[in-house]
Structures are given as C-alpha cells and as structure tokens.
Amino acid sequence: MKNPKRPRDTNQLAKFIVDVATGECEDRAPTPEEEGKDPAAVARGHLGGIKGGKARAAALTKKDIRLQGQKAARARWSRS
Questions:
Q1: Domain span holding position 21
Q2: How high is the pLDDT of residue 4?
Q3: Residue 47 burial (CB < 10 Å; 0-12/13-18/19+)?
Q4: Contact assessment for residue 3 and residue 29, using Cβ atoms and an 8 Å cutoff
Q5: Closest-CA residue to 3 (of 15, 14, 16)
Q6: Is residue 2 part of a domain?
Q7: Per-residue DSSP letters for the chain?
Q8: Are 20 and 26 in contact (CB under 8 A)?
Q9: pTM of this prediction?
Q10: d(CA 69, CA 61)
C-alpha cells in the first residue's frame, strides 16, 4: 500500500499524527525487505542507476550530443 501524503489541513494533519502514534498507519515507506524484494537485486539496480548516465554519456558521439542539444533547445523554445 502506498503511504498517504501528509495533509495540509491542520485538523487532518493532527488526525494523521495520532494515527501514526497509535500505529494505525505507517509514516515511512516500507523497506525492500518488507516489500518482499531481494536485497541483492535492489543493490544491483541501484549500482546500475548510479553509473548509467555517465556510461551513456561516455558512449555518445559528438554528433549524438549535438543532435540531443538541438532537440532540447527546440523543445525549450517551442513552449509559449
């Protein structure tokens, strides 16, 4: 179950705090172990995410970088 966002309304926030204090709902996201995920797989995915952008950037040619920059500039300037 996805954790609810903290409410902005003062009364709803007070009820949420009471619910957390009494254990009726959780105040934090469940850990991978609690969700039934393999911790080793989670670590491998995290490692790949860390090095992914740098490895991808190193593999790009000058032409690819230029084309991506042009596409980004067109997207920025096309907004009104």
A1: 10-78
A2: 60
A3: exposed
A4: yes
A5: 16
A6: no
A7: -PPPPPPSSHHHHHHHHHHHHHTSS-SSPPPHHHHT--HHHHHHHHHHHHHHHHHHHHH--HHHHHHHHHHHHHHHHH--
A8: yes
A9: 0.39
A10: 12
- Let me know: does 3 contact 26? Beta carbons within 8 Å: yes
Position 29 pLDDT exceeds 80: no
Kindly indicate the confidence band of residue 74, based on its pLDDT and cuts at 50, 70 and 90: very high
25-42 CB burial, b ≥16 within 10 A, e <16: eeeeeeeeeeeeeeeeee
CA distance 14 to 20: 10
C-alpha span between 80 and 60 (Å, rounded): 31
What six digits make up the tokens of 75?
């997207």
Residue 1 located in a structural domain: no
